[in-house]
Amino acid sequence: MMKLNRRTLLRGTVGGALVTVGLPPLEAFFDSHGVAYADGAIPRRFGLYYWGNGIHPERWTPATIGREWTPPDQLEPLAALRDELTVVTGMSVLTGNVIPHGSGPAGILTGSPAIVRGQEYTMAGPTVDQVIAQAIGGETRFRSLEVGVRPGPGLSFNGPDSVNPPESSPHALFTRVFGGGFQAPGSEPRVDPKLRLRRSVLDAVMADSARLKQRLGAGDQRRLDQHLDGVRELEKRLARLEESPASLAACAVPTEPALDYPMVDGRQPLSDVSRAIADVLVMALACDQTRVFSSFFSAPINNLLFPGASAGHHQLTHDEPGDQPAVNAIVKQIMVELAYFLEKLRAVQEGDRTLLDNCVVLCTSDVSFPREHRLDEYRCCWPARPAER
Amino acid sequence: MRRPVVPSLLGLALAGCLATPQGPDTSAAPDAPPSAPVLRRLTAGQLARSITELFGPGVLVTRPVEPDTPSRGLIALGAAETSISSWGVEQYEALALDVGEQALESSSARTALGADTHDGVVDLAATRAFAERLARRAWRRPVTSEELDALARTGTTAAGALGDYHQGLQLVVAAILQSPHFLFRVELGEQGELSAHELATRLAFFLWDSTPDDALLAAADSGELLTEEGLRREAERLLASPRARVGLRAFFTDTYGLYKLDALDKDPAQFPHFNSELGALAREQTLRDLESLVFDEQADFRTLFTRELTFVDRRLAALYGIRATQPDGFASARLPRESGRRGLLGQVSVLALHSHPVASSPTLRGKFVREVILCGDIPPPPAGVNTALPEPTGTTLTLRDRVAEHLSSPACSGCHALMDPIGLALESFDGVGRFRTLDNGAKIDPSTDLDGLAVADAWELGQLLHDHEAVPRCLVRHLYRYATGVAEPAPSGSDDPLAGLTERFAAYEYRVAPMLIDLVVSPAFRRVERTR
């Protein structure tokens, strides 16, 4: 466990994205960007693992500092990952607490206060995953991938009013990554005359948009620019299909997920979908289809009915009195799913390291203690081995 | 106020049974002012309907597009404010290619598009003519010759490379459908005036939630749409079409958030009879009521809150405790006073949507009424407040007793006083909208107050909303936002810029259709603010 002093934290939250400041494990990660994968170096990846409605600060904090920590109650499901996991305590979000469940994500993911409109808000700038994607996402087929367990807008933003919604269907995610546009590592480049034609259509779209843009006001110009970024990215993706993909030992096409996941006892199959998505996402990383991801287990203020719970998650965080055993059980269920994902990452061998060793995953939520929408005693963790970097 | 002029016979004939009188000229309040020009992305529904209109029912929209994002509670505003993600662009491309393939592979669609006549594999003139026919309709405006040259080049290059004329045309379709001129509604105006084609686009999406038909484009071509009479005539024609019902449904689905009924999470242990289908059925009930009220009955909009007449299927009838009159599908039914329900707020759609998965919520229901029905503002809850409700004890059994904390604590009561009292009148309905008299074993007391007026129960709440001055004003505001894509009209001194429309709505005895036409011919709809 690592304690951040207030000064480090201030630098972190004021300086833009929380993770770009001098935190040892992340420094190691940032030093590595720019290393060309083609040279045989294993790429480093960044991911966000996010769940809604917070944690219990005391039950989420190891009793001791240092590597030999004992997992506290809510981190019990991550016990097997203890040696890989760094738990960060002593943080507060200092960018204001105006919108419950909104000011937290804005502060921790963008380092800025949210842009508030009544009860709604949008991010003032790009979220940390997209800042990093700008730096290291250009090498891969997908600049970033966003996934979620239930449909919803997610929290990955390119800027104000520009969200990257997560895919919540395991099958659709599989098709997107491993469907027609996927080239097995080491295979021959594709010869398809249609690829070039599709690119020329995109060129025409960009020319059209550029003419239209001249007639627009500043706000709409920015929106059309976001659209054009997407078109350019798609064009690059098509061009890459005509190149030889790198050979990757750890890459294997995952099993095609089911089209639908049935309800479990009349409730959403949260665990089943979460795991099916994790399986595809892990292979998307192993196959170097992307190096940046955001995984939203659940959304801020979600009122999901978890197995065994007597009410929706958000309602329980506010209405359950006393020690909130039902909320506690829900947080632990989420940590079980986080552990599943991290262990899948660890199961992929990349040279003498694991895929998990080559990832930094920022794991956090929108509040610390949800009953009071608190943003002090904020917690996050990431799997990283600072000593080895 | 003078009664509206009796509608002309022609208006009646055109509009079926729709009365669309000329607006009364007694209003002292000014017209709604022009709004800022905005670029609006087609919503998923508009995109699908446009493709069906362009290519016929043989071409299916089977690929998903990026979900719509609401802003200030309205998807119509989100479409004017948000951008598409890179994945959204990828989905647009896949959809455009798929539609191109379907359209040129089905012989009926091919014939309808005039894609059969050509000379050899590479036929520049035929390709250009094909592009012109389609792009004019897809982009909802005449196409410039440079634009046509580019599209024709795309088509002939592709036909040459692939050795097939129709495969070339597939790429033309893909190019037209990926263009920002299709994906966005470009309503920018010149010198503050919308062009005839921009106006046609705005009108069709407002009243039909779809792209203009050929007749509307012709009215734009001839310039007829730029005259008030011409615009009024087209608005009346569109309103008389069955497609206006689709448009009305789209408006209320967005405004009342009824699309959320597809993803209701309800605890099967608490509500064994609820499943995902019931949400969609409940939405259908509400939309049928609105359709009937506006088009068939041409009734006072405010009776939405006091109606006994409704439409239910077998499953909804069981939930309401009334007899279904037919085994399948929806049929008209009456919810009498004994049902305890009255109008919109007695419907499963509203009651289930604004509840928790296991319980009702006076706060969420009151929030819906305050914000969406009365257009009141509620600030977000303060941070750092302990929000736990007290546990049921011997004396505080019901949710009403327990939420009393909201109203007695100064930190909470400022906002909760705007919501909870309204919702308490609806406590006689559980988390999916079933009538009940007991909560947690104790008798429910639904008496409450609405802004100082005593309310005995849900029945009386319906009457008070019917009489509430904010209700018509609020509907006008929603329609303004929906029509223009702009959240607030430009301020005009201290007056409500929409007061003129609201007054005329009253003069029409709160019938919706004539007010829609007034909105269409107002400066708010026909003009935009000059930005440069």
Put the structure in a nutshell:
Chain A has 389 residues and is of the alpha/beta class.
Give a description of the structure:
The complex is a heterodimer of chains A (389) and B (532). Chain A has 389 residues and is α/β, with parallel strands linked by helices. Chain A has two domains: 2-180 and 249-388, Alkaline Phosphatase, subunit A (3-Layer(aba) Sandwich), CATH 3.40.720; 189-243. Chain A has helices at residues 6-14, 24-31, 103-110, 128-136, 170-178, 193-213, 218-240, 270-286, 313-319, 325-346; strands at 2-3, 45-51, 85-91, 115-117, 120-122, 145-148, 157-159, 162-163, 292-296, 349-350, 353-354, 359-365, 378-383. In chain A, the strands form five sheets. Chain A has a four-stranded parallel sheet, sandwiched between helices. A three-stranded mixed sheet of chain A has the order 1-3-13, with no helix packed on it. In chain A, strand 4 and strand 5 (120-122) form a beta hairpin. In chain A, helix 8 (270-286) packs parallel to helix 10 (325-346). Residues 1-39 of chain A have low confidence and may be disordered. Chain B is mainly alpha-helical. Chain B has a domain at 40-185. Helix content of chain B is 50%, strand content 5%. In chain B, the strands form four sheets. Chain B has a two-stranded antiparallel ribbon. In chain B, strand 7 and strand 8 form a beta hairpin. Chain B is globular, with a radius of gyration of 26 Å. Classes of the chains: A alpha/beta (389), B mainly alpha (532). At the A-B interface, strand 8, helix 6, helix 7 and helix 9 of A face helix 4, helix 7, helix 8 and helix 9 of B.
